[in-house]
Structures are given as C-alpha cells and as structure tokens.
C-alpha cells in the first residue's frame, strides 16, 4: 500500500467543470480510511485548496495541501505550516514595470481577492475557479509587503513575449512556471511542486517507493523523480506521458478511481 497519494488538482482531481465527482471523492476517502495520506499540490490558492480538502476530510486523515505551486505548504490535521516562500512587493513592482506596454495582465491573490492590473478572460476564469472577488491592482498596495504568487495572463504570443523580456538577473530571486498557453505563475526562486513533495516526504519520514503520484501537466514533472509510481491522466500533455508507469482514464472518466483500483487494493467502487 502507498503511504502517500499525491494529486494534481485541475484536469486530474477535478472534472472539466471544476467539480469533484462523487466516485473520485469516495475512492480517495476509502484510500485514506485504509491508511494512506493525501496531498493536493496545485497552482491554486491556499483558501481554495482548503475548501477541496474539506470535501475529502483531509483534516481528519492528516493530509497536506501545497498551494501556489508549493509556495505554501500545510499539514491539515494540525494546521502546521511547513513552508511559506514569498516574493517581496518591491520585486513585484519591478516585474510590473517590465509589463508596462505589453499586452498581459498581472494579478495577485490575497485574502479571497484577486488584485488585477486589468481584465482579460483568463483573469476572470482564475477568479471564478478560486471563488475570488476581482479588485483593482492599486487596492493591494497597503495590504501586504509580500505575495505567494504573481499571475501573468494573456494570449500565448503576448505571454511568450513577456517571458522573453524578463531579465536573467531575476532568476536568482523568482521562478516562472507555465500553466497552459495563457497563464504563467511567478513564485519565489526556491518554489516548485517537486520541492513541496520532498518536504511532505520528510515530514512523514517516507521513501520514494511509498509515494503514488497522479498527474497531468508539465509543471507536475518536477514531482516525478520523488514518486515510486507515476499515474498519468489520459488527458495529460504529451511531455508528461514520458514519466508514466500507468496511463489511466481522463479526468472526465474518473482517472483517479481507475488508478487506485489497479495500483492499490484500497478502493472498490461498486
């Protein structure tokens, strides 16, 4: 039996309508009842992941959430924060200056709001996914001196242009993580999903062979070296399939359920 089941969230745990199917929920509850612990590692905000974790009773079973690509890591049973890596607002201001005149939107998540420098369809979708209120960028300035993550959104060509404009000197301070064609996350240089998984494994005192990873996206690849088995969704990006030990059904076909049925003896879906 695997001691830790790690799930990406969008396009893995959730359907295309961003909902948790009853079969997937039941399968993960059974796995936790059998002794496995669950980790959700995602680009989503801490507040949003906590809502999903509640549905999966992860407080009861001492699961983990790693939000903003792992910038914020928390054990749900004790509510211990294991890791919190932030970007300074001074650095955010430098990035915003670089974005001036480019056709991209910058936004910050804080206290249930999405503070955006403008409005585009991708910002609106992110606010909807995370159940956040859209607010003007200027309203954020007096709230905090640091941020977990900065979003950059726009058409693919504009986003590529912005990324190419980023000075190499910033690489020691920040990391750019692409999430699909129209979004990029900017986080602290020490943040990625693989580092978050390593922290969870250290906290649990477990080894690679104890970890089952279920993933779909290229930014999930950072976790693959630390998992004993990698199950990849049928809807996964081609680059991710190279890491797969098992190719499961899509997120619309309860791929997590199929993974647990085949790779563990902890789940029986009737």
Automatic annotation (TrEMBL):
<dbReference type="GO" id="GO:0005829">
    <property type="term" value="C:cytosol"/>
</dbReference>
<dbReference type="InterPro" id="IPR023214">
    <property type="entry name" value="HAD_sf"/>
</dbReference>
<dbReference type="Pfam" id="PF08282">
    <property type="entry name" value="Hydrolase_3"/>
</dbReference>
<protein>
    <submittedName>
        <fullName>HAD hydrolase family protein</fullName>
        <ecNumber>3.1.3.23</ecNumber>
    </submittedName>
</protein>
<dbReference type="InterPro" id="IPR036412">
    <property type="entry name" value="HAD-like_sf"/>
</dbReference>
<dbReference type="GO" id="GO:0000287">
    <property type="term" value="F:magnesium ion binding"/>
</dbReference>
<keyword id="KW-0378">Hydrolase</keyword>
<dbReference type="GO" id="GO:0050308">
    <property type="term" value="F:sugar-phosphatase activity"/>
</dbReference>
């Amino acid at each position: 039996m695997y001691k830790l089941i790690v799930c990406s969230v969008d396009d893995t745990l959730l359907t295309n309508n961003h909902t948790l199917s009853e079969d997937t929920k039941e399968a993960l509850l059974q796995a936790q009842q059998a002794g496995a612990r669950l980790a959700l590692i995602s680009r989503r905000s801490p507040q949003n992941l906590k809502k999903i974790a509640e549905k999966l009773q992860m407080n009861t079973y001492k699961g983990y959430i790693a939000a903003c690509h792992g910038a914020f890591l928390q054990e749900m049973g004790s509510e211990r924060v294991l890791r919190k890596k932030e970007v300074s607002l001074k650095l955010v201001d430098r990035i915003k200056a670089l974005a001036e005149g480019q056709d991209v939107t910058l936004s910050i998540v804080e206290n249930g709001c999405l503070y955006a420098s403008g409005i585009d369809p991708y910002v609106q979708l992110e606010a909807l996914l995370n159940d956040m209120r859209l607010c003007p960028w200027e309203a954020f300035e007096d709230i905090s001196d640091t941020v977990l993550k900065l979003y950059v959104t726009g058409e693919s060509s504009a986003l590529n242009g912005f990324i190419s404009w980023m000075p190499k000197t910033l690489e020691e301070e920040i990391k750019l993580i692409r999430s699909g064609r129209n979004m990029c996350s900017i986080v602290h240089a020490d943040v990625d999903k693989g580092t978050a998984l390593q922290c969870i494994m250290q906290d649990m005192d477990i080894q690679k062979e104890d970890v089952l990873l279920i993933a779909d996206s290229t930014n999930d690849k950072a976790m693959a070296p630390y998992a004993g088995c990698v199950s990849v969704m049928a809807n996964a990006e081609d680059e991710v399939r190279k890491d797969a030990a098992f190719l499961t059904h899509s997120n619309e076909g309860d791929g997590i359920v199929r993974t647990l049925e085949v790779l563990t003896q902890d789940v029986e879906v009737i």
